[in-house]
Amino acid sequence: MTHSTASPATGGEWWRNAAVYQIYIRSFADGNGDGVGDVAGLRARLPYLRDLGVDAVWINPWYESPMADGGYDVADFRRIDPVLGTGEEGAAFVAEAHEHGLRVILDIVPNHVSDRHAWFRAALASGPGSPERERFLFRDGRGPGGDEPPNGWRAAFGGPAWTRTTDPDGTPGQWYLHLFAPEQPDLNWDHPQVRAEFESILRFWFDQGVDGFRIDVAHGLVKHPDLPDFAVHEHDQHLTADGGEHPHADRDGVHDIYRAWRAIADEYEGDRVFAAEAWVSDPARLARYLRPDELHTAFNFHYLEAPWRAKAMRAAIDDSFAALGPIGAPATWVLSNHDVVRHVSRFGRPGHAQGKSLGMVRDTPVDLELGTRRARAAALLTLGLPGSAYLYQGEELGLWEVEDLPPEVLQDPTWERSGHTDPGRDGCRVPLPWSGQEPPFGFGGARPWLPQPAAWRDLTVEHEDARPDSMLNLYRAALRIRRTEPGLAGAEMAWVDAPEGVLAFERGDGVRCVVNFADEPHPLPEGAEVLLSSAPVEGGRLPGDAAVWLRLR
Ligand code: GLC
């Protein structure tokens, strides 16, 4: 079977096969020594990213924020948070990134704002029925005295999706909707001012040369006007799409918003792009976000969620191509991000225990050596597929999830909101180890905002740089070959017959990628040249949990 995602990228349309590096800025590099990563640290490390060989960076929200949800609670979209830097530093960063040949993607958060945002403060101050409240979703409570929330919707971090306000005279007032933390009130996207404001924010950053946006909770903006109750499993509620009928996920109305945004991006020079964070389970529904007049790419969470098994991985790949091929949108591949357990720690759980959150997996013992071996293979699978690839900072070092952070340092609202049953996402957000023998491992500052494990001394950039067989050097080699090997440039792939437990596919020019998920070594075609392998190929056989890129003669 041959898959084609689109015509090969010519000079423009860089996003069709870009390798994009995700920067969780608070944990990347600390330039001013306060223990929190910042724009200064990022600027100083630009040469590292250039040498790694990625095409673009996506930066998690750097806007002014009280940090109730790691910056996804934005108080002012036009200002960089003072803890992270200044507007001048931001502009200098964008210019320098471009000089290094890197594009810059910011993170836009349109579903909600911070409860400290000027609009929400005005809404609280102005009271029920005021125009200020119309920009949010305020409702009277149900039951006697309005004591019960307006509906039974649940928040993503646990608990009800509604919080009651207190009126200026001290009496209990209306409730407001927040699909995430109470500090993140949802905006009312039926309000023209909300639409106009976000279009203006996009222009503000596009005018500064930013190359695109990752759209947070892209599926969630539009709500059913009646806010009706619905029956759904708590864990599933943000992932469910019922043909546009879910009251707050993947409603058909979101597409108008993205058509308007696309028109704005298209006014600018140089291929400005959008990448949707849309948790939509049906690939055909997800493809609707990528119609030619809408967004450019969307994260492929089916691939991220697939267990380390040949069949499951192949199904995720096939489903993605099947949905995207007909509309000419490129596939994207992602293994980790700032919201999920790092993939070394997912793939290192024997029995293929999966689950995105630490709360779901932490009772299953983890084998980090196995996880690392599989992560090396997964890197060659991911970077060997046509389409664009997203790398999460630290995966190129083989970082694992820090599962034993002491409760007192946890900041993810999931910890509190789950009643201390799920530690949340801080374990994948621990500051990067750059150099040296002990924490803070060259991150900067005396004490990083989350403590790094002592064992990361073997995973620093400095340490791995010096070892030809390190994860870092595997990623560097893979990214270099991906750029220079004409066989990997096209948008096509074709599966090659392989025994159970093995996936093999060919790209152009006789380049073949083989991944062995089984335990038994797999014989490779005779005379093939090994371009790159995740584990040593001995006697022409690819060991288990390993991958190789070959050139066939
Ligand atoms: C997205 C972000 C996540 C954030 C949530 C609310 O899922 O990736 O980090 O908590 O949106 O903004």
Automatic annotation (TrEMBL):
Q: Which GO terms describe its biological process?
A: oligosaccharide catabolic process
* Tagged with keyword ATP-binding: no
What organism does the record attribute this protein to? Nocardiopsis aegyptia
Enzyme Commission identifier(s): 3.2.1.20
Gene3D superfamilies given for it? Glycosidases (3.20.20.80), Oligo-1,6-glucosidase, Domain 2 (3.90.400.10)
Q: What class of enzyme is it?
A: hydrolase
Q: What is this protein called?
A: Alpha-glucosidase
Q: Which InterPro entries match?
A: GH (IPR017853), GH13_cat_dom (IPR006047), O16G_dom_2 (IPR045857)
Q: Which CDD domains match?
A: AmyAc_OligoGlu_TS (cd11332)
Q: Which domain of life is it from?
A: Bacteria
